[in-house]
Amino acid sequence: MREALRLLELLKNHDNQISLIENHNSYTYKDLLEQIQHFDSVLVQDQVAPGTITFLKGDYSFQSIAFFLSMFKRGLICVPITTTNEAEIKERIEASGATLCYDMRNDKKETFLPDQVHAIIHAIRQRNRSGLILFSSGSTGKPKAMVHDLDNLVESYLDLKSKSLVFVVFLMFDHIGGLNTLLNCLAMGATIVLPSSRNPEKVSQLIEKYKVNVLPASPTFLNLLLMAKCQETYDLSSLRMITYGTEPMPASLLLKLKDTFLRVKFLQTFGTSETGIIKTQSKSSESTSLKFDDPDQEFQIVNGELWLRSKTQIMGYLNHNMDSFTEDGWFKTGDLVEESEDGFLKITGRAKELINVGGEKVLPAEVESVVMEIDGVTDCIAFGLPNSITGQIVAVNVSLEKGIDPLTIKSVIKKHCSERLDRYKIPAKIQIKEQIDFSDRFKKKRLVV
After folding, report:
1. Stretch 31-52: mean pLDDT, rounded?
2. Within 13 A of 185's CA, how many CA atoms are on the CB side?
3. Any domain includes 286
4. Which of 88, 237, 408, 433 is 20 to 30 Å apart from 137, CA to CA?
5. Number of CB atoms found within 10 A of residue 412's CB
6. What percent of the chain stands above pLDDT 90?
7. Is 183 among the domain residues?
């Protein structure tokens, strides 16, 4: 496990620096290494062999991070899982073929009897590599069980320079974006602040208390931060960078954020669970255009869809065919992009979310950005609804500031959209909602019909 040893050597270099802050308790990198050693002893005592598929239940904590690193060091195949839904847990145990589970929430261990072992698992074991199994969100069907070579994934982080930065880990432990933040921080010797909850007020409190420099988040969360006016209640002046991804950023929201956080650099991130996180460069803090700046990643655009091929992509799925990959290894992301003459890309939305109005295609993100330009509108989500004449119509759900008259705002939305959008893109149905629905991963729940 050469990459695991290299990573642990990096941790030793940081020694007495603060590695983690959790529930107001601080742990040095030395503390983290000692905890990794403790869990090494646990795994030896439990006679857990390299290549064992092992569930790790629980979100980020000092204990779970140390256990994850111990599993990596010992060559296990790790399945991090944050859900507490028993049906989801059972489904994922069966899909992964896990034989063992360590629950960080209540310090329990369980064992399972697997079905037959998948060929991908055999391949990892034969190569004496550590593995990582992640699951897709499952929003449009059964979650896909994706298998990474964890040594290969971690290797891409090991040449980072040390930096004295403080991060909040926002994206979750079983999400490629969350693991990207974790591995970046560990390799750089940065300090990781773990929130006990991911509501805007709690995260803002931590930013103020621990002088956080970097906040990775989703556009939905950043909008909630503005809606809660956290910048007026808490001192967020320590922030130097906000990275955003996981869903499209409305251009109008980005401008509001930049106007609020004048000293902060905004960087759009991009990646997929299948290919890993790509190093990116934003055109500016006010622009949603970006470039891929990563020697480990290739891209091409095929009929408006982004295809990726990377050194860190998955070995395969345990419970799904590989039809999203071409024979020569290109992953068809399903993301729609536009490329400008200067080489910058703009992620415009997901192919499956396109609204078809009489044969004309409408991007929900474009409609949302225009609607959110209107004073009094705090959030919105656009989607298609069935229509007997045009096939679909554009609909929007909108949330408002207190005191805004719903009837008046509907007229304002219609008028503003008619000035800014083609006729077929103008919302035909507008519904006022107290709050726009979002998932526990702070992504909008978009209706797809």
Report:
1. 97
2. 29
3. no
4. 433
5. 16
6. 87
7. no
For residue 131, is it within any domain?
Answer: yes
CB-based contact 407:373 (threshold 8 Å): no
| Domain co-membership, 90 together with 8 | yes
User: Last residue of a domain, which of 123, 155, 187?
Assistant: 155
Rounded alpha-carbon distances, angstroms, from residue 417 to 390, 413, 425, 427: 19, 6, 8, 8
Q: Residue 309 belongs to what domain range?
A: 291-351
Helices (H) and strands (E) in the chain, counts: 13, 27
Phi, psi of 59 (to 5 degrees): -85, -170
Q: Last residue of some domain: 135, 155, 175?
A: 155
Q: What is the pLDDT of residues 381-401, one digit of tens each?
A: 999 999 999 999 999 999 999
Both tokens of 304, joined, read 């408006």
265/313 Cα distance (integer angstroms): 29
Contact between 165 and 190 under an 8 Å Cβ cutoff? The reply is: yes
Those residues whose C-beta lies under 8 Å from the C-beta of residue 204, and which sit 6 or more positions away, are 225, 228, 230, 231, 233, 234, 236
Residues 27 and 47 in one domain: yes
Four-residue CA torsion sign, 278, 283, 284, 289:
negative
| pLDDT, tens digit, 9 for 90 and up, residues 190-231 | 999 999 999 999 999 999 999 999 999 999 999 999 999 999
Q: Collect all residues with Cβ–Cβ distance below 8 Å to 341 and sequence separation of at least 6.
A: none
